[in-house]
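S.,

As promised, the zinc ion run. Input:
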Amino acid sequence: MNLNIKCPVCKKQAHATHTPFCSEHCRQIDLGRWLKGVYVVPGRPEDQQQNIDDIDK
Ligand SMILES: [Zn+2]
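Predicted complex:
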C-alpha cells in the first residue's frame, strides 16, 4: 500500500501496517523519545523530596 506519509524517525515512506512509521523499529524509537519527554520533570527533584520530609515531621 502506497501512503503519502513520511516516517517521522527516518523520513522514509511510511508503511500501512506501522503508520505513521515505516517499521516497528522506528515506532519503538519514536515511542522512546516520547517517553523521555514525559518523564523529564521541570525543577529539581530534591526540592520535592524535601517537602515530603517536612510533612512527616
Ligand atoms: Zn522509519
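Residues 15 and 31 are 17 Å apart (CA to CA). The two ends are 63 Å apart (CA to CA).

- D.
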